[in-house]
Design brief:
Blueprint lengths: L1 H19 L4 E2 L3 E6 L8 H7 L5 E9 H4 E3 L2 E2 L2 H11 L6 E7 L1 E3 L11 H4 L7 E4 L4 E4 L4 H18 L5 E8 L17 H14 L8 E5 L6 H13 L3 E3 L10 H6 L16 E2 L13 H12 L3 E5 L11 H9 L16 E2 L2
Parallel strand pairs: 1-15, 2-3, 2-14, 3-6, 6-10, 10-11, 11-12, 13-14
Antiparallel strand pairs: 4-5, 7-9, 8-9
Length: 350
């Protein structure tokens, strides 16, 4: 039954891809290094470093939502342009994936995440919410008005950068937003179904202005495997990519259960897949793994097309640090899945 479902999915996707997305999607699968530039960190030295590394396809850089939208519908993409211009100077092309941050962990500070206008206009109900169990402030993406503005941001990014060959894609924050088991303490506009509905709406709407560009939704949890199956199906139908956010050998997150076929149809090969490698797998709460163990799991089980490695300089031993462990491993040219996803139909590798 899984094979029949997969064949049916593939035929539907091919038809949709050629009718709705006749333009080829920019396609440079492989290994990327991710750097958090949202705090003002200058990633140019990292870009210079990978310029000499053919196995590293590019960088994922992070920006807070408020850094890109200065007031309602008024965007400032100069920070992205700064790094695009840097990439243009390299002798060998490298690509950029822009990650939009919509939360701040280990903090109660509500400012400096989303645009300021959303904090005061009552339609957004405060714009952000505090998660006490995680000590984290997150954008209220379960609220339709807040999600409207997120969709608008990604559409604006697509309008500006869809034809730019240096922009491989854009990535969201994590899908999960939880407020514990006690529903009496949940925000009045939050429920698991509300969160799912808004992410499905995002998947169906945000990529309309970027048909040539990857859009990675960082799927990890949306209230259970059944909800995640609904979201992954929407990702598939909308020609969007699924991301991690974590790659943990021998453990499948909710989204990874779905796309690997553990809960139903197998989406591997049908959609682009681009999870991250976080610090929690280098002498962290999820284990202590070598880069090869992580890469093997990503290739053989998750079947990733893009893998975004933390430039780890502080966790684990020398075999797990960027310069002495991860980068030497990447120089062995470990594989990722390079075939054009069925949902895209056409891919542009130039």
């Amino acid at each position: 039954m899984k094979n029949l479902a997969r064949i049916s999915f593939a035929l539907l996707a091919l038809a949709a891809a050629f009718t709705t997305h006749a333009q080829a999607v920019k396609w440079h699968p492989g290994h990327y290094v991710k750097v958090d530039t949202s705090t003002g960190y200058d990633a140019r030295p990292v870009i210079d470093e990978i310029a000499k590394e053919p196995a590293v396809k590019g960088v994922m850089l992070y920006f807070y939502w408020y850094q890109l939208e200065k007031s309602k519908g008024v965007y400032d993409f100069s920070k992205i342009d700064f790094y695009v211009n840097k990439l243009k100077t390299l002798p060998t092309p490298k690509r950029l994936v822009v990650h939009i941050k919509d939360r701040r962990p280990q903090s109660t500070l509500k400012t400096g995440i989303i645009p300021a206008y959303m904090l005061s206009d009552p339609i957004y109900k405060g714009g952000v919410a505090y998660q006490p169990q995680n000590n984290m402030v997150v954008a209220r993406l379960f609220n339709p008005a807040v999600m409207d503005r997120s969709i608008a941001l990604f559409r604006a990014l697509g309008t500006r950068y869809n034809s730019n060959p240096y922009i491989e894609g854009f990535a969201t924050g994590e899908t999960t937003i939880g407020f514990g088991a006690d529903q009496s303490k949940w925000p009045s506009d939050y429920s698991k179904s509300a969160l799912l509905n808004q992410w499905v709406r995002f998947a169906r709407s945000a990529r309309t202005t970027m048909p040539q560009t990857n859009l990675f939704i960082n799927t990890n949890f949306v209230g259970g495997d059944a909800n995640m199956a609904t979201l992954i199906q929407a990702i598939y139908e909308s020609h969007v990519a699924a991301a991690g956010p974590s790659t943990i050998p021998n453990r499948l997150l909710s989204s990874q259960k779905v796309w690997t076929g553990a809960t139903g149809a197998d989406y591997r090969g049908l959609i682009a897949i681009g999870p991250a490698v976080e610090s929690n797998v280098f002498d962290g709460p999820h284990g202590s793994f070598t880069p090869k163990q992580i890469g093997d799991w990503a290739y053989n089980t998750l079947r990733v097309t893009h893998l975004f490695w933390l430039r780890n300089t502080y966790k684990g031993d020398s075999t797990q640090r960027w310069s002495t462990g991860i980068l030497p491993y990447l120089r062995t040219n470990p594989p990722t899945r390079t075939a054009c996803p069925t949902t895209y139909g056409l891919c542009n590798t130039k």
